[in-house]
Design brief:
Two copies of one chain form a homodimer. With 360 residues, the first copy, chain A, is α/β, with parallel strands linked by helices. Chain A has two domains: 151 residues, NAD(P)-binding Rossmann-like Domain (Rossmann fold, 3-Layer(aba) Sandwich), CATH 3.40.50; 193 residues, Dihydrodipicolinate Reductase, domain 2 (2-Layer Sandwich). The first copy, chain A, is 34% helix and 27% strand. In chain A, strand 15 and strand 16 form a beta hairpin. In chain A, helix 1 packs across helix 9 and helix 5 runs antiparallel to helix 10. The longest helix of chain A has 21 residues. The first copy, chain A, is globular and about 70 Å long. The N and C termini of chain A lie far apart (42 Å). Chains A and B meet through helix 1, strand 7, strand 10, strand 11 and strand 12 of A and helix 1, strand 7, strand 10, strand 11 and strand 12 of B.
């Protein structure tokens, strides 16, 4: 059995790698086989602090991990500006690739990563965890149900949190040479992904950034928003910010239904998550109350969403490794669409809030 | 005691007048003294069907009611295009004025109504019911609390419902010569009011309508949205529509807190209403859940919000009638601000989604 586990190594000791290391441990079809840092000591300390098995290896360089033939796949939590280099190198070393979001600084860079994955026949997946929660499948089922939801008319998403002064000064997400896309790349990524989910992954035609984004002195986005328009009249808006209290909402409204969720990226609790869904909601005759209200739907899961992500990733890798399957196209396609919209928002901000057309 | 009750007459038999007639009956300081229609029979039938007291009078013309010296105040639920004429005439007849929203076709018309009220020394109030629910006071208290909410950063509101084909063809709200402001005047009014409430009634500086509003063949708005911007960086967006499932949300995000409500205009239930409020909401250490979540706050009321509105209106009228007070300025000021923003949204749509500056 152990031989069928997908061996996943962690490239870098980012804070988020703690959560993902635990997820790799929890996934029944994956094994946490090692961690690399530019410092051997740092990697060793990380492994010790994060429950790595005794069999896990510690590497004093990223290259050493990538060159280890016992490693099937890597998780790369490095800053966005380093994705192109290390993701391509990982693919060239035939490592299947679980890459932190945003996947790249722009879609041109991302296409080079995808080309490298395709050349080597390795699986690509980005580390957007919440879409792997079974709640998300239940929400998608509702949103695609003509009887319960009808056709999507509008969707609004937000993800904000109040970063403290130290974060706003020192975190990699406010550094132009590290996570140069700032709040848009970090939180906006999730908002855009949720909008695409609600639109059944149909790309919008036009993207317009909202006025008054907040940028730091180095030009990194700390707060922004945008509106997205489809040809059939669907409209979406989102808002992401490092400067406001922790909030993460989806409100999707269809011709027949409405969906509300307040904890879409990280559910309040690990083992169960809820959303509100209403169909043909209506007032009573005198409009003094509602005859039909939205209902709460709760979905339970024995594994946290990040472990379900790893399980899905390892399942696809195992198909390739043991069954000679081709890499799955679904996840990289969705990643690319997310990045395309993100690029359009950034372009609209740079062009003074002009509408930007999305071209696939 | 009965002598101190404010005698309120209803000018027109609109559907909404059923709810407001009941509210006048329920308000402890008001009496439902009569109803007027252009047809005496229609007024009589309305009075019989809506529990008017035996003492209530029935008038075969609006003028007859306005000229009756036993009537202290009138509720005018007529289509918006008729507000200017009948509201001014009511004020000239020294009737205190409870006027259905939107208060006028534009702020210039509304100013003529206010001038007439001022000349006669009568109270003006618009019929925005939800702001009189004690839940709204609790929400406003939260939103103005520096410790629990901090400074407002963004607020998003929506009010949509799916009008049926008959409504979309025949309702006064889709007729350019009746409620010519369509969904913007009807539902957008509430969205704008909620945004102003969250901004503590500070007007935005700039208003930009969203692309792709839906207008009917006569140019009446069936679906639209807008973004509002303040000089200090606050941003608001709203969406109103006759073309999507019944939904009415406020999401307000401050530097320290977040407020969510899903039934802001008409609470699910008459006797109690809830909202979610979070302060310094946060993730746990590993970001696998929330360490601090929003909490549900429930506010009960023995009177429905529309009766509380009437009670407040009658209280102000009684102050004038029995205590020689001046008319209260708060409610007409808020009505005027709401209309100003509404006018700016309409202007932005007409000018091809150009930003429109608000001038008080």
């Amino acid at each position: 059995m152990a031989e069928t586990l997908i061996q996943i190594g962690v490239v870098g000791c980012a804070d988020i790698a703690r959560k993902v290391s635990r997820a790799i441990s929890l996934a029944p079809n994956a094994a946490l086989c090692g961690v690399a840092s530019r410092s051997h000591d740092k990697a060793a300390a990380f492994a010790a602090a994060n429950g790595f098995p005794l069999s896990a290896k510690v590497y004093g360089s990223y290259e050493a991990l990538l060159e280890d033939p016992t490693v099937d796949a890597v998780y790369i939590p490095l800053p966005t500006s380093l994705h192109l280099h290390w993701a391509v190198l990982a693919a060239q070393n035939n490592k299947h690739l679980l890459l932190e979001k945003p996947v790249a600084l722009d879609v041109a860079q991302f296409d080079r990563i995808l080309e490298a994955c395709e050349s080597s026949g390795v699986q690509f997946m980005d580390n957007t965890m919440w879409v792997h929660n079974p709640r998300t499948a239940a929400m998608a089922h509702f949103l695609n149900d003509a009887q319960r939801f009808g056709n999507l008319k509008s969707v609004r998403t937000c993800f904000t949190f109040g970063a403290d002064p130290d974060y706003l000064k020192n975190n990699i997400r406010v550094k132009p040479d590290l996570d140069g896309l700032g709040s848009l790349g970090d939180q906006g990524w999730y908002c855009i992904r949720a909008i695409l989910l609600a639109a059944n992954y149909e790309l919008p035609k036009t993207v317009v950034a909202s006025y008054e984004p907040v940028l730091n002195k180095d030009g990194v986005i700390l707060d922004c928003g945008a509106s997205l328009y489809w040809e059939d009249g669907k409209v979406a808006t989102f808002h992401c910010s490092f400067l406001a209290n922790l909030t993460m909402d989806i409100t999707a409204i269809g011709t027949r239904g409405t969906l509300h969720v307040h904890d879409f990226v990280v559910p309040y609790n690990e083992k169960e998550a809820s959303f509100l869904a209403g169909t043909d909601t209506s007032f009573n005759d005198l409009v003094t109350g509602w005859a039909k209200q939205p209902n709460k739907h709760t979905v339970t899961t024995h594994l946290p969403q990040e472990a379900l992500l790893v399980r899905e990733f390892a399942r696809l890798v195992a198909q390739i490794k043991f069954k000679n399957s081709k890499p799955d196209k679904k996840w990289p396609t969705i990643s690319r669409k997310t990045q395309l919209v993100l690029d359009a928002v950034k372009a609209s901000i740079q062009r003074g809030f002009e509408p930007v057309q999305i071209q696939e």
